[in-house]
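Handout, page 2. Input:
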Amino acid sequence: MSAEALTPPDAEAVAPLRLVREPDVPSPAAYRAGLVLELLGRRSAPLTLTDVAAHLGLAKSSTANLLSSLEATSMVRRSARGWLLGYKVLELGRAVLVSTEVVAEFHRHASSLPALRGETALLAVLEGAEVIYVARSDGHQPVRVVNDIGSRMPAAVTGLGKAMLSSLQPAALDATLDLVGDPPVLTPRSHRTPAALRADLARSAARGYAVDDGQNTLGVLCVAVPVPGLGTPAAVSATLIARRATPELCARLVADLTVLAARLDRGEQP
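Output:
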């Protein structure tokens, strides 16, 4: 059992969002503006106009117009070194979390379950081959693992990601694992081959929960359970320092996570 992501992926490792062919969308300009926001959100350092244009495969004049329009709405801002996301994005992100009923239910239920309320509990969704952290409930342990809400990590090295992958139908799993390719190796315990990852996912599916035992971060352990009925792949997890993870505690956490997942699926009150 193991750990979720502590930091977002290295900025330079993020793949370019280059437009090979304009998709068939009603508003190409709005689509391109969305790509600009996604690109800036995936980089930790400012990007110049030239950088943004190159990553998206757009002309500098078109990119400049996009950035200026987004700046007018405070969605992006410019610094001495280039362009960054604007603070309006943070405001909107918080609004999404506040207005999302499942997040509020997650917090209510996670704090009411006997074993889970003492640990760091997480709710995440799957986007492509990455986990996006949606909500966190901090327990009362003096040493806690911190995962930033909105950050991403490769699904193949997180308990949450493996729980979600193990719940996919075969065709969807194959398509997602094609995106993964060779699993990322973050620690000596990370899977080295697609076959090893698939075997882990098969074990997770059979027992109903996933275990990340130092594959993400050595010394940190996570158990995670999929939430099947939210309309998108989702999972909940408990993360703790590995030296505290006795078999008895892990069994109680899995039991609480299973209850939490069922309550979120059905929208029950605690």
